[in-house]
């Protein structure tokens, strides 16, 4: 049983190299590591390739995109290029804890029917120090907490995730045959993980939740979620998606999950916090935009409608 650890990257850097080293340091060697560089910069990619080659580990490979695909399509390529029974999309700035692969393989043997495993995460800053930002304290407060590894699914898990997406996507390990037929729907960068979880759940798939973390998740200003929160694009995408999710949940006969999608409380609270901060900085236009996200229950769908896979 192998785990394909796929790293969707954008260029080289010290944090990416930390990520790679954390995989190589695993106590269980049943893994393969693939870095897929979306920078489309031959010079930078050559330097990264030389460094990876210097590790002299034939389980490590580098793939490059000749043109930039963007977050969503690079994540999709990670799925497409995987071939092991299990696949994990590890962030290019996160770190696996040393026994992560070992625990995943052991848990997958004990629970052969689960479609995905949420190993959970501890939080570190740009310098690798343990931190507890407000967003992560909120995630913990709204999450399903368990003292032992346990299996969850159905409307219970869907409603919980729609109240607040507390899963750390880089810490999720998917059974490949469950996730590849669904893939990532084009057009989503921020909610692509939540969308995938929900489509697995409406197919009556289940998730194993680890009681203790398998990964160190890095919070820093350059992350995709931080950038999206800064200009409001995160909230625009979320609000549009929650309208779709509400319809998906209602069609599946899950009223509690549909209600959670309609309210999307933690997303609204996040927008309110941003609006207050922007108002204090006298950035009135941006503050009004965030406030609008906080009070709007739905927005028009994008110009190109998508089929909701249920």
What is the strand and helix layout of this fold?
Blueprint: E1 3-9, H1 14-24, E2 31-37, H2 42-54, E3 60-64, H3 71-81, E4 86-89, E5 95-96, H4 100-110, E6 116-118, E7 121-124, H5 134-142, E8 150-153, H6 154-163, E9 172-175, H7 176-179, H8 192-201, E10 206-209, E11 215-218, H9 224-231, H10 233-251, H11 255-263, H12 265-280, H13 284-295
N to C succession of SSEs: EHEHEHEEHEEHEHEHHEEHHHHH
Count of DSSP H/I helices: 13
Beta-strand portion reads: 15-25%
Structural class: alpha/beta
Number of beta strands: 11
Radius of gyration (CA) equals 19 Å
Shape: globular
How are strands sequenced across the largest beta sheet? 3-2-1-4-9-6-10-8
Main sheet, how many strands, which sense, barrel? 8 strands, mixed
What is the overall pLDDT average? 88
Distance between the termini: 29 Å
Unreliable segments of 5+ consecutive residues: 225-229, 297-310
Query: In which range does the helix fraction lie?
Result: 40-55%
Can you characterise this structure?
The relative contact order is 0.13. Helix 6 (154-163) runs antiparallel to helix 8, helix 6 packs parallel to helix 11 and helix 12 runs antiparallel to helix 13 (284-295). Strands 3-2-1-4-9-6-10-8 form an eight-stranded mixed β-sheet, sandwiched between helices. The protein is globular. The chain is an alpha/beta fold and 310 residues long. Strand 2 (31-37), helix 2 (42-54) and strand 3 form a beta-alpha-beta unit. The protein contains 13 helices and eleven strands. The chain has helices at residues 14-24, 42-54, 71-81, 100-110, 134-142, 154-163, 176-179, 192-201, 224-231, 233-251, 255-263, 265-280, 284-295, and strands spanning 3-9, 31-37, 60-64, 86-89, 95-96, 116-118, 121-124, 150-153, 172-175, 206-209, 215-218.
């Amino acid at each position: 049983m192998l785990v394909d650890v796929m790293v969707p990257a954008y260029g080289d850097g010290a944090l990416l190299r930390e990520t790679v080293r954390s995989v190589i340091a695993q106590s269980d060697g049943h893994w393969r590591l693939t870095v897929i560089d979306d920078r489309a910069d031959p010079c930078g990619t050559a330097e990264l390739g030389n460094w990876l080659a210097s590790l002299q580990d034939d389980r490590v490979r580098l793939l490059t995109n000749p043109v930039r695909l963007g977050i969503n399509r690079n994540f999709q390529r990670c799925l497409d290029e995987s071939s092991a029974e299990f696949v994990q999309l590890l962030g290019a700035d996160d770190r696996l804890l040393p026994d992560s692969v070992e625990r995943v393989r052991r848990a997958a043997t004990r629970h052969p029917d689960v479609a995905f495993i949420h190993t959970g995460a501890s939080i570190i800053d740009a310098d690798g120090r343990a931190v507890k930002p407000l967003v992560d304290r909120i995630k913990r407060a709204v999450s399903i907490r368990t003292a032992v590894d346990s299996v969850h699914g159905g409307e219970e898990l869907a409603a919980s995730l729609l109240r607040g997406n507390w899963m750390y996507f880089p810490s999720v390990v998917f059974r490949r045959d469950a996730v590849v037929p669904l893939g990532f729907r084009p057009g989503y960068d921020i909610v692509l993980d939540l969308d995938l979880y929900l489509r697995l759940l409406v197919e009556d798939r289940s998730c194993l939740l680890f009681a203790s973390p398998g990964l160190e998740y890095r919070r820093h200003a350059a992350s995709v979620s931080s950038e999206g929160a800064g200009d409001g694009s995160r909230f625009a995408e979320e609000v549009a998606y929650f309208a779709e999710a509400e319809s998906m949940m209602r069609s599946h006969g899950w009223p509690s999950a549909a209600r959670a999608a309609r309210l999307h409380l933690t997303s609204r609270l996040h927008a309110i916090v941003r609006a207050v901060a922007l108002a204090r900085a006298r950035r009135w236009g941006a503050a009004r935009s965030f406030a609008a996200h906080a009070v709007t229950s739905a927005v028009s769908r994008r110009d190109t409608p998508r089929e909701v896979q249920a």
